[in-house]
Design brief:
Shape: elongated
Number of domains: 2
Distance between the termini: 57 Å
Order of helices and strands: HEEEEEEEEHHHEHHEEHH
Number of strands: 11
Structural class: alpha+beta
Radius of gyration: 24 Å
Largest sheet: 4 strands, antiparallel
Helix content: 40-55%
Length: about 325
């Protein structure tokens, strides 16, 4: 019975997310909210006290945002109500504590977390200046809730742009490390004077069926691998990276990439050229270009393509080559 309920609730939230995806993703939806409110932090918080909590409706469910004093800090909690389904919900929040006399002194914090893995807590050092004359605190909360299927457009346009402008440097660090590692692996093979000629011979001698198996993989497998690599619980850039990768995937799927190494045919990702040595030489000559708000889609294409190349190289081409080397000995 419990498992049946979980399946039911899972279907409910997926329908909710599907409806959201059908709407204009650039508009705020019932899965996103941004609002300001006044709270009176209590010692400790009282769940039924309207002065220290705010009930928010998102995804057809209730979530409570509450404030309290804990020692010398103001503490904030966003938690699902008990009647919410026990699913893998995620929340991306920006919490701003507004200074009553100088907005420029506002304290701001971004958090990304699973709402079903315990109650997330936001703690800020409590300075007298953040409480008004009545002992209240003004809060601006921006939050977006989404469910289990993370390889989808997640963020409304305004929130996406805000996060991108604020977190571009972090995204660049993550992606540039991945890009460099992949390119370095391919360069290492090409520059190996003993191994590279054997690799080229292996490719030349591989029959059409073997090459066909090595240079393609199912879309769903690649998507799952992308999520596994770039989407990490509690890592703030995860939903933003999913947005960027989704845009890149959509562009590749629509055949809108200017310089491409992979394509999507049917339900498969595949290399555009079965002349793998030549393709690898083209790839290692490619430079990493940092992300900017005006080139998000191109950036997403580049990362998805490099990821597919890396996946096929490590999981198929290199494995087959290594096996052929062993068979020769």
């Amino acid at each position: 019975m419990e498992e049946e309920l979980k399946i039911h609730f899972r279907n409910v939230i997926r329908k909710c997310l599907e409806k959201h995806d059908e709407e204009d993703r650039n508009d705020a939806s019932k899965l996103y909210k941004k609002e300001s409110f006044i709270l009176k932090p209590n010692y400790p918080p009282h769940g039924d006290d309207d002065d220290n909590s705010k009930v928010i409706i998102l995804g057809d469910y209730k979530w409570t945002f509450a404030a309290s004093h804990v020692g010398t800090s103001l503490q904030f909690e966003l938690s699902p109500d008990d009647n919410n389904p026990m699913l893998k919900f995620y929340a991306l929040n920006t919490v701003a504590i507004i200074h009553p006399h100088d907005y420029m002194l506002t304290q701001c914090s971004d958090r990304f977390h699973s709402l079903c893995d315990g109650y997330p807590i936001y703690s800020f050092h409590c300075e007298e200046g953040f409480l008004d004359d009545e002992g209240n605190v003004k809060v601006e909360l921006q939050t977006q809730i989404f469910g289990e299927n993370v390889f989808q457009p997640l963020l409304v346009k305004k929130y996406r742009v805000e996060l991108l402008l604020d977190k571009m440097h972090i995204v660049n660090i993550i992606c540039s490390k991945f890009f460099k590692k992949t390119i370095d692996n391919m360069k290492s093979l090409i520059q190996d004077e003993n191994k590279w000629p054997r690799f080229c011979t292996f490719i030349e001698e591989s029959d059409q069926f073997s090459m066909g198996q090595m240079i393609c993989e199912k879309e769903d497998v690649i998507k799952e691998a992308l999520v596994h690599h770039f989407f990490l619980d509690a890592v703030l850039t995860s939903p933003l990276l999913m947005e960027i990768l989704y845009d890149g995937y959509e562009s590749i799927n629509a055949n809108n990439t200017a310089v491409k190494f992979v394509r999507i045919e049917g339900d498969l990702f595949e290399l555009v050229d079965d002349d793998v040595p030549s393709l690898f030489k083209r790839v290692v000559g490619k430079e990493y270009k940092p992300i900017y708000p005006t080139i998000v889609t191109q950036f997403g294409c580049m990362i998805v393509e490099i990821f597919v190349l890396d996946y096929l190289f490590r999981n198929k081409i290199e494995k087959n080559f290594t096996q052929s080397e062993l068979d020769r000995t």
